User: Which sequence fits this backbone?
């Protein structure tokens, strides 16, 4: 066994608290930030220990709080963490999306200023991309940043900003040239959400409350040094970041909750004979679904391996499309199996777990919309991978 | 056993060039049996049959990952080259064969001089209990039964035969001792039923490991077949996409229509899911993982889904020309359906998966 694997294994054994070796309840997800919540103190202890090792961002340079591991070591670390059943120490759009972009496009000053606080879970970031009139056609965004000499003056509105109400900063796409062709007039700007003129309003979904918000900018002053990359050169960065987002959405966003197995719902619905789902046709459907889901899992894993060696590639669109399809199929199966028990909204007439399945089913309808619609992902695949003509 | 990504890529590149030069997919009905022998000589000279056998036992040491890469290239051209059987037979004999088998039969399998066939399936769906029997005699066994759809049976010198004794057992059988019943299959590949009529073998013919060895042979065959299917699926999509880029209707390339673009993209999604599944299964075979059967089922199932879609769309998206025997699309759809059915179709595999997973 490699020295590093042994080191990682021993360290995890010594530092991973027993209480967080299991599935993570939503309220215990460690998001960090200026106002963090850690209902389970072990979550904080595990996070601190991982931060001290630089393992919240294992491949980032140690100068910025990472551990400077190469791809092979990072893979070994990941395997050992999985083997130990460790929860992720930190959930963070900063780690998953902004950090890689800053490492590639940020100035030395920007890296030194923003990366360490991401690694140490001190700053919670959200993403300001979509607007009411700019969803799939993201480049038609209208939020503008005007050059006022010593600062940018930002006006406009973002939508679908996940956790904007809990975040500290936002990385946003803004229009900096109203006359240029739409892809060429966009810049990438970092905005402190405490700046006067920023306001946030949560959005309710068909599944109930949600992490999504609308974010409004009303004469918001942003320092000039907060622009990442060249003026009007934000679209390249935006596209790169979207790849990270798709990779992340499919790996973490859907299907993370496997606490209820679809085959157990089926046994409850139609009974079992000798341990088998009593209805053969249903059993076959469940098996087919589970095989598809497992194929998505191994593909997600393959994509992560490709990403760890620096090749994010187009597999992200494949995984994004397929995992949305799998998760939605699971939701439909669950609600069908529960029958009317799966169609309650609240109250003591319904089992809490069943109500959760109902909400998950409704929420899954967004999986093929958020982070790039399924249609956009099919466009990416057909144009960029298969090279089909316009 | 690990092989570097660069070595693997080189192996695949070499194989792609050789297969497309020497065994390209052809349109039309029927097949040319004379081609088979010369193709096999080439495969043997390159040492491909020993790809999955470790170097210390005389193989190339590329692991099942390496054998899978070669099978993928054979699959791309839907070539009727029985490397799957010989490659797997070599690995099983190297690992589980008796001393006699390892000293006398293995060298020929590794050099490719001895071609092998896998006589492990029975019935139209290749599932369920074995009806072929192995009866104990003094110093050996007598085999009786009928194995179906054995690829390359006629050209093979030895067969691996699965039969039911006290437990399922795997035997190395001289091809001279069995009868063949050639099958004129829809895809033109050289399959035969193999009839074992009081075939006597010695104890040396028995591979160690009992039922696990039979199960392993089936798992490996499913994975190898899935690797071929992924290759064929990949090529079917390439040919179809090339056509979408050149064919014009309504004054435009038909590949510019979003309805067709999305159908092409969905083929690629299924292909990539199948590719990941096959890669996971090949790695599991090299690592001897306990969930090998699950992953073998996953690989064959997903490869089946992917090639079913791609081969059907290949005909449809080519329009009328795709229905003619002068175009290769028909041979891909026929080859696909035979491969889908071999070693268990997807309904069978789903059922088996549910059973393993306890529901």
Assistant:
């Amino acid at each position: 066994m490699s020295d590093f694997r042994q080191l990682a294994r021993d360290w995890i054994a010594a530092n991973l608290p027993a209480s967080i070796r299991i599935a993570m309840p939503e309220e215990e997800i460690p998001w960090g930030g200026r106002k963090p919540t850690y209902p389970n103190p072990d979550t904080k202890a595990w996070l601190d220990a991982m931060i001290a090792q630089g393992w919240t961002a294992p491949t980032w340079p140690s100068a910025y709080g990472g551990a400077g591991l190469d791809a092979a070591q990072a893979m070994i670390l990941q395997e050992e963490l999985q083997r130990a059943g460790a929860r992720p120490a930190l959930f963070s759009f900063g780690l998953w999306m902004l950090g890689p972009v800053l490492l590639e496009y940020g100035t030395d000053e920007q890296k030194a200023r923003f990366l360490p606080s991401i690694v140490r879970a001190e700053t919670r970031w959200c993403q300001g991309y979509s607007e009411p009139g700019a969803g799939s056609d993201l480049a038609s965004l209208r939020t503008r940043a005007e050059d006022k000499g010593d600062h940018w003056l930002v006006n406009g509105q973002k939508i679908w900003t996940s956790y904007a109400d809990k975040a500290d900063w936002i990385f946003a796409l803004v229009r900096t040239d109203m006359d240029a062709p739409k892809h060429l007039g966009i810049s990438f700007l970092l905005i402190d959400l405490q700046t006067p003129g920023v306001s946030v309003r949560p959005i309710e979904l068909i599944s109930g409350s949600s992490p999504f918000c609308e974010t409004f900018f009303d004469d918001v002053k942003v320092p000039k040094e907060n622009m990442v990359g060249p003026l009007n050169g934000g679209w390249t960065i935006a596209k790169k970041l979207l790849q990270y987002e798709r990779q992340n959405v499919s790996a973490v966003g859907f299907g993370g909750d496997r606490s209820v197995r679809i085959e157990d719902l089926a046994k409850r619905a139609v009974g079992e004979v000798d341990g088998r789902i009593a209805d053969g046709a249903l059993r076959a459907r469940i098996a087919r679904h589970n095989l598809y889901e497992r194929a998505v899992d191994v593909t997600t894993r393959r994509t992560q391996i490709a990403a760890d060696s620096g090749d994010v590639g187009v597999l992200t669109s494949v995984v994004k499309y397929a995992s949305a399809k799998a998760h939605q199929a699971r939701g439909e199966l669950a609600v069908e199996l529960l029958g009317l028990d799966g169609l309650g909204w609240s109250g003591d007439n319904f089992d809490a777990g069943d109500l959760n399945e109902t909400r998950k089913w409704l929420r899954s309808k967004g999986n093929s919309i958020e982070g790039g619609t399924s249609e956009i992902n099919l466009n990416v695949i057909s144009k960029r991978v298969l090279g089909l003509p316009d | 056993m690990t092989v570097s990504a660069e070595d693997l890529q080189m192996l695949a590149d070499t194989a792609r060039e050789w297969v497309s030069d020497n065994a390209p997919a052809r349109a039309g009905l029927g097949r040319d049996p004379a081609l088979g022998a010369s193709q096999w000589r080439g495969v043997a000279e390159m040492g491909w049959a020993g790809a999955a056998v470790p170097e210390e036992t005389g193989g190339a040491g590329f692991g099942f990952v390496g054998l899978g890469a070669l099978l993928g290239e054979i699959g791309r051209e839907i070539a009727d080259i029985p490397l799957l059987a010989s490659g797997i037979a070599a690995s099983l004999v190297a690992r589980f064969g008796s001393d006699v088998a390892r000293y006398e039969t293995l060298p020929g399998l590794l050099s490719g001089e001895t071609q092998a066939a896998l006589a492990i399936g029975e019935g139209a769906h290749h599932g369920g209990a074995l009806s072929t029997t192995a009866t104990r005699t003094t110093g050996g066994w007598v085999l009786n039964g009928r194995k179906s759809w054995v690829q390359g049976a006629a050209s093979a010198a030895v067969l691996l035969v699965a039969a039911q004794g006290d437990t399922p057992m795997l035997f190395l059988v001289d091809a001279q001792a069995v009868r063949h019943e050639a099958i004129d299959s829809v895809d033109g590949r050289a399959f035969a039923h193999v009839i074992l009529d009081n075939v006597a073998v010695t104890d040396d013919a028995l591979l160690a490991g009992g039922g696990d060895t039979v199960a392993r042979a089936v798992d490996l065959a499913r994975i190898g077949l899935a690797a071929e299917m992924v290759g064929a699926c990949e090529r079917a999509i390439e040919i179809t996409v090339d056509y979408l880029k050149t064919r014009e209707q309504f004054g435009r390339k038909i590949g510019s229509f979003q309805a067709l673009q999305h159908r092409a993209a969905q083929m690629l999604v299924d292909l990539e899911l199948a590719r990941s599944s096959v890669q996971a299964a090949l790695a599991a075979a090299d690592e001897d993982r306990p969930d090998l059967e699950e992953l073998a089922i996953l690989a064959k199932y997903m490869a089946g889904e992917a090639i079913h879609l791609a081969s059907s769309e290949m005909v449809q998206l080519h329009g009328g020309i795709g229905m003619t025997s002068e175009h290769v699309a028909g041979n891909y759809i026929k080859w696909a359906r035979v491969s889908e059915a071999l070693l268990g179709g997807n309904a069978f595999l789903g059922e088996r998966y549910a059973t393993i997973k306890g529901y």
